[in-house]
TrEMBL record:
Reactions the enzyme catalyzes: geranylgeranyl diphosphate + L-cysteinyl-[protein] = S-geranylgeranyl-L-cysteinyl-[protein] + diphosphate
Designated name of the protein: Geranylgeranyl transferase type-2 subunit alpha
Family the UniProt entry places it in: Belongs to the protein prenyltransferase subunit alpha family.
Bias (Low complexity) ranges: 412-433
Amino acid sequence: MEGRHGQKKQVFTPEGLKAKSERDAEQVNEFLQLKAQLNKVQESKQHDNEALKVTTAILRRTPDYYSCWNIRRNILLEGFLKDVDKETADKIYMGELEFLQENLKLNPKSYYMWNHRRWCLEHMNNPPWHKELAMVGKFLELDARNFHGWDYRRYIIRQLDQQDKGNEDKILERARGEFEFTTTKISQNFSNYSAWHNRSKLLTQLVASMTEDEKEAVVENEFDQIKNAIYTDPEDQSAWLYELWLVGREDKHISILGASVISFQPLLEIVVAFDETIQLRQPFTVMTRVSDDAEPTPLAGEWKATGSDAGLGSVWIFQQSPESVYGTTVEVVVFPDDVCGQRAGSRLMAPVCFELETINQDLETISGRLTRLPIGRNLMYDVSKRIGPVPPPDGRLDHPAVTSPVASGDDQQQQQQHQQQQQSPSQQQPQKQYLVTSLTRSSSAQDRIDLLEREISAVRELMEIEPDSKWPLQVLSMLLSEQRRTMSLFSKRAKEMDDECIELQEKLIQIDPLRQERYEDRRTQLVFDRETLPLLRDSRTRFPELEFRTGDEEDEEVGSGSGRGGEKREIDQDKEKKKERVAPPPRHLDLSMRGLTHIPMSSYFIHLETLNLDSNAITTTRFLRNLLSVKHLVLSNNSIKRLEGLQHAPSLAFLTLENNLIGRWEDFVSGFVFWGEGKLSRTGATVQVKMGGNPLMENEGGEYVLEKRWDDVGVVGVHVQFKTDEQIAMEETLAHDQARSGTISTVVTEGCRRVSTTVVEFDAGPATGSN
């Protein structure tokens, strides 16, 4: 039997266990006595040698007693170190370092001892940094995977680099030495995540001053190192994680899916949907023009996210202030620095503008949809205040101020060539550099694609040898997802990749059940992305951003999308110049029986009227907060335990939660706690809610008790059915059969429950003794 890092665990006999228990009890008693002495030291504010001995005795036994370290530092500062010269102080600190070194041999993974060691060094006048580097090297010889030691080693190197600040050659030479140290440790044992991690930090520093050719040579050497490791032990995660870091990931761009008006009366309310959760840095700009000849003016109001946190969300609602007045036209402009993505590196690449003409205040006619406008001098708001020079009013989007830094393949290259032809040599901008690996860039997008294809082939080759190894499967899924980002969402190859990634997650669930939930969540994200494609399209102005499909565009099937892999998408420039009224997006979506564990991004659903999520594994209804248009929602046969978010569903007319896991009255009623604050109650709408098949029925006293309690709640316009349709149908069938057979059913009420008593009439034949 092995413990951590391959160390054998000690096996005790029954007699050995008894002796160990006795020793442990004795040590506990000793510790309690020492702790009592420590309390006296603290109360009396002792700072002498006896007080220090008490802390020494405790910390030898229990080095993770953090409060004792604080007391020890206080004893040193207020006693031994008070009013002494620098040389004497350094000797005292050296004594502490020796004490720590002895203790670290016994417990090299104590956070508090390593922290105390840093404290000593940082308070010394002449800290022995080089001796410390040698010391930690010896510790890593004993346990090369001790991440405390690796972290401390990086700390020492930072201090040495700080001493040599300005001497770049010496700092670089030290980094090369550390890089060779990681090579040595990895060659001794590939399963050393700390060494791989340190290697990634050092590589970033070492290649900073290299040419692209030199960087490529270094990267190729790293891939060879990785290949040796994964073929030696494909089940170890260290080299696989290092490979994913080396391959790198492109930054995720935030997309504004669309904007809609959800209310005109009594005040204007506008919703803007993003494809990820964002934080508002500053309110989006809202402008209006009261009349055609009037000057544009800001429309006062407040932006809030749906849900419990008004400052964080994927759907944002603008509520007009009562004192403000909107005119015939309203524009909403979102600038990149207005938003901050929740995921690291995600950002909005360019300003986006939406326009609403308020003359026709019929939501059914205009479908609540706002028109997306090109950014130019034709807007009511002078965007040049925020982004600098803007293109002419024709709405062309090839101006550097409004073009996304990351665009699509051939379209972007042609655009750059056109710009360079129009500029003098001194005005020409540097050529776009594409990500190839986390350390290298290239002027050709194809280099990234070639690298991904090569690494995918290498993983597939290993999978032929190790078909049931979980790490090759996980890395293949990640690499395929990264490759998918180089092509159109709607290409045939992208759909094939989606399907393969989903199959990989299903296989991982089978071979690695301990991490089933993680794979299920990953699978849910992949299925969700695939199944919601009919709702989306590539942005006509900024690929690879997304926006809602509108229903008026031509079918975007195989080859119609643009991608960095060379797939072309022709854009009708004349059509882009028009401010056309778009048709409604798709209104219905069936995601039943897809195995979804959650809804990754419910902002995709704000235009839906019908959503079927029957027979999944969904556990929460919080996503209801973003279903602003849904009228018919099916959530039966899931794993929901609590009802939430209903107050944010202003259009809901039918909701079925049959056969879920709602077992308490409080978890059901919680969905209606803030009902009076939601729009649904204000509209006077009637909502049918089906709750049959939940443990609630059995746990809370049955149908009639629940109906009585619901009547007491008094939520107007909400009708709840506590039995399933199947139960009602069975009861009706039974009653019909009983009526036909002559069975008489009566009902006797006992307290708050109804008990059914059935009396069956039958012909007993002639009485005994009759003639």
